[in-house]
Amino acid sequence: MRVGVAALAALGLVGCTTPYQSMGFSGGVEAHQMTANTFRIVARGNGYTSGTTIQDYVALKAAETTRQAGGTHFLVISAGDASSASYLSTPGQMKTSVIGDTAYTTYNPGATYQIFKPGQDAYIRVINVPTGQSPPQGAIPADEVIQFVGARVKRG
Length: 156
Prior knowledge:
5-stranded antiparallel sheet; 3 helices; 39% strand; disordered N terminus
């Protein structure tokens, strides 16, 4: 019985993760053009989103942006961790009961929770590799990322 309740609770929390969507209140991913062939990819998650999910979002957005810009491959120029952490504290509670001439007090202390929100920023350069030519070292084929990463990404 407990396992079933735990499984349902876990499924409920999975629904709270940041979906692959435009940037919004609960996070998302977006691309900003910096030069003719350079883009900044920004992805942010909420407290229920894993770091690997955000990495998938960055890779997929880079691939989609590459295709939209007419490229076949992209190079990651730089990438950085943009995660953040915040804290939530709940107050303690004290309750006093009087029985006869005696007062009994119980105290439940508050708790502090850390909320980790994964984020990543990356700069990519879009390139177009003609058919039959070898791409430069480190170039990532956009179509393959869309095929493999796109299949596992939860869309909003």
